[in-house]
Amino acid sequence: MRAVGDVNGKGILDLACGSGYYSRMLKARGAEHVHGVDASEKMLAEVRKLHGGVTYYQHDLLEGPPPPPPFRPAVVVAAWLLPYASNFNELLEFCEAAAVNLESGGRFVGITALYTDMIARDPGALLRRDHGHIESETLGWEFKWTGRPEDGMQVESTLYSADRKAQVTLPSHFWSKHAIEKALEAAGFEAITWAPLEAASGAPETVATTKDPMPVGIFTARLA
Ligand SMILES: C[S@@+](CC[C@H](N)C(=O)[O-])C[C@H]1O[C@@H](n2cnc3c(N)ncnc32)[C@H](O)[C@@H]1O
């Protein structure tokens, strides 16, 4: 939310809005219009029941740019969209989907998994060469892959609830900052900056003080 900045009175487009968690949060923070776009109609059918002042559209961003909203978004956000890009061309298509609806100077803000130096070094490879595995019990994540780690690699990501009773496992692709920056620049973005994930205020002490790395980054880019 700090990366998105002040949204008061602004129009926001939320790509891959999923359950609309961020869409509703942005609306509650004063955005005038928030449109959420997601490929899953099943998900959107549930989310529309919550309403929250947000308009939701079904659209697969790999089948062309999203329909233009009836307002010019000041910011396009995309939380956890880029890990769905299975190759560089798809990464570029996602960045272009953000660019097409922005005016020059508009911002694209996203949170994504990252192929980091830690993964490139592959601690699992010390034992075996055919798979890797990293996890943080404190932060509640586990990432597993087969084969040698490389940019864009497919990873099985499991996220746990704080009490470890619930978990969700998603296939995802981990792209390096370098690959993401290349795709953003090819889509017309500049002034790309990265911020690390920070513990929310009120997070448990163990989470706030852990030294466990989190292969995740928040990027902000401006359309040239
Ligand atoms: C991990 S969820 C994140 C949802 C939401 N942004 C959040 O952070 O709570 C990823 C979402 O991306 C959507 N998605 C994946 N590929 C997509 C595509 N090609 N076009 C549109 N949405 C897509 C999925 O349907 C899913 O709802």
Topology:
Layout: E1 11-15, H1 21-28, E2 33-38, H2 41-48, E3 55-58, E4 75-79, H3 88-99, E5 107-113, H4 117-121, E6 131-136, E7 141-146, E8 153-160, E9 167-174, H5 177-186, E10 189-196, H6 205-209, E11 216-223
Parallel strand pairs: 1-2, 1-4, 2-3, 4-5
Antiparallel strand pairs: 5-11, 6-7, 7-8, 8-9, 10-11
Bound molecules: S-adenosylmethionine (SAM).
S-adenosylmethionine (SAM) binds at residues 16-19, 21-22, 38-40, 43, 60-62, 79-81, 84.
CATH superfamily of the domain at 11-114 and 175-223, by name, is: Vaccinia Virus protein VP39
| Order of strands, widest sheet | 3-2-1-4-5-11-10
CATH C-level category of the domain at 11-114 and 175-223: Alpha Beta
Low-confidence stretches: none
Share of residues in strands: 25-35%
Q: Helical amount among residues, as a percent range?
A: 10-25%
Task: Name its key features.
single chain; about 220 residues; alpha/beta; Rossmann fold; 7-stranded mixed beta sheet; 4-stranded antiparallel beta sheet; 6 helices; globular; binds S-adenosylmethionine
Characterization of this structure:
This protein has 224 residues and is an alpha/beta fold. It has a domain at 11-114 and 175-223: Rossmann fold (3-Layer(aba) Sandwich). It has helices at 21-28, 41-48, 88-99, 117-121, 177-186, 205-209, and strands spanning 11-15, 33-38, 55-58, 75-79, 107-113, 131-136, 141-146, 153-160, 167-174, 189-196, 216-223. The strands form 2 sheets. Strands 3-2-1-4-5-11-10 form a 7-stranded mixed β-sheet, sandwiched between helices. Strands 6-7-8-9 form a 4-stranded antiparallel β-sheet, with no helix packed on it. Helix 3 packs across helix 5. It is globular and about 50 Å long. S-adenosylmethionine binds next to helix 1.
